[in-house]
């Protein structure tokens, strides 16, 4: 018995030594990888250029700003950042609804008839893609990140048209629960899009809800709400508010796992339909993996480590099967053209199976946060390499690696730089 015990101890010691050596090798790789610093420097340089989303988008979007505001706070004038955040609330609607974003009036050139005016911000035009349900939650997260980076909680007490920003954030949550909430499932709804996308699958008005729209529930919108509710709890000073956000967060997370998590297949189902599906009965939508929404669900602490490992295996296999350049692959398999509306993205185009660092980078962050360090480093490398090869943070990449969309997409720069910073911080903390 004593012999067996000593053998077990020896195996344990050898195993620990092996893990330590492996960890040291990874630390050396990270610390000696000059390309990481090069890409981080490029991202910081881009942040100095302002707040527009990218070279092809001269607007300020809440969903974009949310993903680069932390790095922006380190490289840009924080007073200007605060002004840009406050501007969103000048366009908040009476029901609490928040818009996608705004643009200086003299830069409004695309002729959209569905725009918004504000008497208190006459120099700007507001706009909104109504198929989305992440504008309110994106802005809440951006405000929270701003406070965390700067320590400036006073922004919550600043008044816009008679109400404090914290009061307006509360109104925005109330709007979601009033306008886009399913009492049956206890989750929020939106139009049917590709995972986190802003294009509805039926065609029609594409970015706006219309007579073709099929309302549905997905993991992305609800995971974004969960993160926002956690942020609201941390920003609240009233104990009653804190309790409200905590209870609502607990409910959203529980219902996501109850209704959207497919335990047998270790994946989230794409959609729950409120009144009918836009797809034919012969189409098995649950064969599709939603990579972006899954990454956000991990950020919202909805999956345990075993489940994270399982979805990561799916993602890696999907990248291999598709031939995609990186783990930024949005969905797999992509939706076939024959089940989509007129003019909607073909397979492996744009949000229907394109490769987006904007979300792949967020998955890398969650891998680092949850201890999958080696996997994070290996899977991040293609994203780092293509920034240097193409000399830019492109919006998305085609299946053959060809860059597409804006060449200076700040969302891509923000999430990738944060991944690099997190990886370097991990390495610096190793003994």
UniProtKB/TrEMBL annotation:
Q: Where is the Glycosyl hydrolase 94 catalytic domain?
A: 71-284
Keywords tagged on the record? Glycosyltransferase, Transferase
Carries keyword Transferase? yes
Superkingdom of this entry's organism? Bacteria
UniProt-listed Gene3D superfamilies: 1.50.10.10
Q: What is this protein called?
A: Glycosyl hydrolase 94 catalytic domain-containing protein
């Amino acid at each position: 018995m004593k012999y067996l015990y000593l053998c077990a101890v020896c195996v344990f010691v050898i195993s620990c030594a092996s893990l330590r050596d492996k960890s040291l090798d990874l630390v050396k790789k990270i610390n000696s990888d000059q390309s990481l610093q090069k890409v981080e420097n490029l991202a910081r340089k881009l942040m100095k250029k302002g707040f527009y989303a990218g070279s092809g988008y001269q607007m300020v979007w809440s969903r974009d700003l949310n993903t680069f505001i932390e790095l922006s706070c380190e490289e840009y004038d924080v007073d200007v950042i605060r002004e840009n955040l406050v501007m969103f609330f000048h366009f908040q609607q009476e029901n609490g609804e928040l818009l996608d974003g705004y643009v200086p009036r003299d830069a409004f050139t695309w002729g959209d008839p569905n725009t918004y005016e504000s008497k208190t911000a006459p120099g700007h035009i507001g706009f909104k893609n109504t198929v989305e349900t992440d504008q309110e939650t994106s802005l809440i997260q951006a405000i929270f990140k701003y406070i965390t980076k700067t320590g400036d909680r006073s922004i919550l007490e600043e008044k816009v048209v008679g109400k404090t920003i914290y009061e307006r954030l509360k109104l925005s949550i109330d709007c979601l629960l009033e306008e886009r909430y399913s009492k049956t499932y206890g989750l929020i709804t939106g139009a049917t899009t590709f995972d986190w996308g802003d294009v509805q699958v039926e065609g029609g008005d594409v970015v706006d809800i219309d007579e073709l729209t099929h309302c549905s529930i997905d993991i992305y919108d609800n995971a974004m709400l969960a993160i926002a509710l956690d942020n609201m709890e941390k920003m609240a000073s009233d104990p009653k508010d804190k309790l409200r956000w905590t209870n609502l967060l607990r409910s959203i997370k529980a219902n996501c796992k109850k209704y959207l998590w497919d335990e047998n297949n270790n994946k989230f189902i794409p959609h729950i339909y409120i009144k009918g599906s836009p797809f034919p009965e012969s189409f098995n939508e649950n064969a599709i993996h939603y990579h972006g929404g899954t990454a956000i669900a991990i950020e919202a602490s909805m999956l345990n480590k075993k489940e994270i490992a399982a979805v990561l295996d799916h993602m890696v296999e999907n990248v291999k099967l598709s031939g995609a350049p990186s783990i930024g692959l949005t969905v797999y398999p992509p939706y076939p053209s024959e089940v989509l509306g007129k003019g909607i993205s073909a397979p492996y185009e744009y949000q229907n199976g394109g490769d987006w660092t904007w979300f792949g980078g967020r998955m890398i962050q969650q891998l680092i946060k949850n201890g999958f360090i080696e996997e994070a480093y290996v899977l991040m490398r293609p994203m780092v390499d293509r920034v240097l090869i193409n000399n830019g943070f492109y919006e998305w990449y085609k299946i053959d690696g060809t860059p597409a969309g804006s060449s200076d997409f700040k969302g891509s720069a923000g999430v990738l730089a944060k991944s690099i910073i997190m990886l370097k911080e991990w390495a610096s903390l190793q003994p």
